[in-house]
Amino acid sequence: MSHQQFKTEVNDLLQLITHSLYSHSEIFLRELVSNSSDALDKLKYLTLTDEKLKELEFTPQIDIELDEENHKIFTVRDNGIGMNKEDLVSSLGTIARSGTKNFIKNLSEEAKKDSNLIGQFGVGFYSVFMIADKAEVISKKAGEDKAWKWTSDGKTGFDITEAERDTHGTTIILHLNENGKEYDNRWQVEQITKKYSNHIAFPIYLHYEKTEYGKEGEEPTKTPTVEQINSASALWRRSKNDLKPEDYNEFYKTISNDFQEPMHYIHTRAEGQLEYNTLFYFPTKAPMDMFQADYQPGVKLYVKRVFITDDDKELLPTYLRFVKGIIDSEDLPLNVSRELLQKNKVLANIKKASTKKILSEIKKLQNNSEKYTSFIEEYNRPLKEGLYSDFENKESLMELVRFKSTAVEGWTSFKEYKERMGEDQKSIYFITGDNEGFLRNSPLLEVYKSKNIEVLIMADEIDEVVIPMLGKYDDVELKAINKAGSADEIKSDDDKKSEDSIKPLIEKIKEILGESVKDVVASTRLTDSPSCVVADENDPTSQMAQMMKAMGQ
Ligand code: ADP
Ligand code: MG
């Protein structure tokens, strides 16, 4: 069997891992266990839905075998779905997730050294090459006859040959390097497993030799021993009272591929008409694929503790795609097909209730201004998307989004703006554009400054699309100041008089500029600059005009 090269992105990833993740090498075990757990989830699901596999009886489990005497071999075994030859090539020879590929490509040399950044994607199987010179993967796919062995040194490429394996599933045999020797140790493995994998849904058994010392002069006896080392209780089904923040944080790491603690978690049990448990997390840093169309959804669906899918983008509204976690329903049939999920009433209800719950928790976060600022720095933008996509929750979302302003430092809300408004101020004023610094120096702000009127600075490209659509906040109109006529309502009688006095000059300018402009008007909005260009009240503003041009409108 010939030797096959890794795809270039695999080489890049291997480079990255070996250079940056060394101090975190223990995560190899978390990654292997999580792959086994996924494989067991998949097979469990198939035995419920696939005619061919319905007869198959299996007790899902993961086994870890140690070589405490020689510290050479480390084995992880599962009886999950397994891989055939094609699967081995496509899963272990390339990087399937396109987000990861782009992510690596775009990382600067500096960023590559930041292991927190790396924690943002599944480091996955290749992390074994931090601690092994050679890895063998022996696998047999459920429902198939042949087993295959994939072997690699994690440098050049891999070989695949036919192999033997009794049952379906996968065995990973690691030939440890110097750095890996410490993992052939019972206490180490127990501790790492508890840290990362305590709450996965399947038991993890540790196989080792127990040494017992007899009377003096007698040889100690060695007994092969098997011990379950994780609690394997689906954490989200346990009572909140039994759980500590550490339990939640540790569980988060097992489901999110994130090293960092989560920013926040929300654990809910619903009883009554519908019965379900949800556990949601806000990552401390926004997922790196948040703005990619092919982002990986963060929420996994379970039915009565059986994993159904982690690839359904409809479980929560798109704008909440940064939320990670679990929905576990008691009401769906176990063999619900993934295609039918979209139209499912039970799920629609869970989605609706979960959205409300998440938004109300975000509202509560506002009480802690430091925490809320961090939240806004990461998630302001998706919330703004919600302003135009989630009509039902528009009112709550308007309380949650934040803006920069001419009146205060940092972020501010519509509500705070309204509280600061002068008695005879009629509207909430805002200016849109793509650069905060530019906007702050805009001549359009001059008249508002001179009259001490606050203007919201909207420098996020999405603002221009979303904010004008809102119309009002709490009965106060929202007005873009980069529109003709927008300053009319703040004019004094003196302003109006001086405008009249320059009418003849205006006529002259109009004559000269002719067709190249729509209109020329006197304005009191400027105090220091002589003139500026603005959009007509009903026209798109200039930035919007550019965006529409770019979209071919
Ligand atoms: P990820 O788990 O994020 O997809 P990995 O590098 O951890 O990335 O694994 C790559 C792929 O290899 C998995 O998606 C899966 O298809 C396959 N795989 C890895 N380990 C196993 C296993 N124990 N059983 C079955 N398939 C596996
Ligand atoms: Mg994985």
UniProtKB/TrEMBL annotation:
Q: Which residues form a coiled coil?
A: none
The places in or outside the cell where this protein is found are: Cytoplasm
Return the CDD domains for the record: HATPase_Hsp90-like
- Identify one Gene Ontology CC term for this UniProt entry: cytoplasm
- What domain of life? Bacteria
Region annotation A: where it falls in the sequence = 1-338
- Binding-site residues, ATP: E31, N35, D78, M83, S98, G99, Q120, F121, G122, V123, G124, F125, T170, R338
List, in alphabetical order, the Gene Ontology terms for molecular function in this entry: ATP binding; ATP hydrolysis activity; ATP-dependent protein folding chaperone; unfolded protein binding
State where it is primarily located: cytoplasm
Q: Does the keyword ATP-binding apply?
A: yes
In this chain the Histidine kinase/HSP90-like ATPase domain maps to 24-180
| Stored Pfam families | HATPase_c_3, HSP90
The record's annotation in Gene3D superfamilies points to:
3.30.230.80, 3.40.50.11260, Heat shock protein 90, C-terminal domain (1.20.120.790), Histidine kinase-like ATPase, C-terminal domain (3.30.565.10)
Mind listing the UniProt keywords for this protein, alphabetically?
ATP-binding, Chaperone, Cytoplasm, Nucleotide-binding, Stress response
Which protein family is it in?
A: Belongs to the heat shock protein 90 family.
This chain's function reads: Molecular chaperone. Has ATPase activity.
Q: Which PANTHER family match?
A: HEAT SHOCK PROTEIN 90 FAMILY MEMBER (PTHR11528)
State how it assembles.
Answer: Homodimer.
| Name of the protein this chain belongs to | Chaperone protein HtpG
Please tell me the species this chain comes from.
Thiospirochaeta perfilievii
